[in-house]
Write a sequence for this structure.
């Protein structure tokens, strides 16, 4: 299947999910992450859930990160440049939804990409090779291309892997892991 067909299919599948189901599955994903050997790092980039898109609820993972006393980084999308700017999430960070319902920091302490050790990546679907399909704007591919080579890229998905995404682009950045409610996929 190509990315366009995958996007259409997985947006429809997500729309069928109840809020209760998303909450249970999101908690399962966070619980799976607790046992992974990724907690010796410092800066963890986390996407804030777009509720309108029925994404994985990252609030549970945010609690894990806070409990482990990790520095959490969140982003603000610049739709003019196609780039993301990254900010340290603190108790004083004001979050506001943009025109696309993406919760973003209003301002704050900017964190250079070179400091980020782990990126939790949103996605619609992923395949057995670690390739992902997002919303198609390329924000995360550009961001991940800027990260240092050892930065861990961990997808979070409500669904299990598909066999293969047919139209992978050379600029697409593969995941190291993907976590679903049913298991952990290791592509490293």
């Amino acid at each position: 299947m190509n990315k366009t067909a995958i996007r259409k299919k997985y947006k429809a599948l997500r729309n069928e999910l109840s809020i209760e189901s998303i909450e249970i599955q999101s908690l399962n994903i966070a619980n799976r992450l607790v046992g992974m050997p990724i907690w010796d790092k410092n800066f963890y980039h986390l996407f804030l859930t777009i509720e309108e898109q029925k994404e994985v609820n990252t609030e549970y993972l945010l609690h894990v990160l806070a409990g482990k006393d990790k520095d959490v980084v969140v982003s603000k999308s610049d739709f003019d440049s196609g780039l993301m700017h990254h900010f340290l999430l603190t108790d004083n960070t004001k979050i506001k939804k943009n025109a696309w319902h993406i919760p973003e920091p209003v301002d704050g302490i900017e964190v250079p990409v070179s400091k980020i050790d782990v990126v939790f990546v949103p996605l619609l679907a992923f395949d057995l090779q670690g390739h992902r399909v997002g919303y198609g704007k390329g924000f995360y591919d550009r961001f991940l291309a800027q990260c240092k080579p050892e930065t861990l890229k961990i997808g979070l998905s409500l669904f299990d892997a598909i066999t293969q995404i047919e139209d992978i682009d050379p600029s697409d950045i593969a995941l190291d892991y993907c976590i679903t409610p049913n298991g952990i996929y290791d592509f490293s």
User: Anything to note?
Assistant: The radius of gyration is 15 Å. The mean pLDDT is 95. The chain has four helices and eleven strands. The first helix runs from residue 3 to 15.
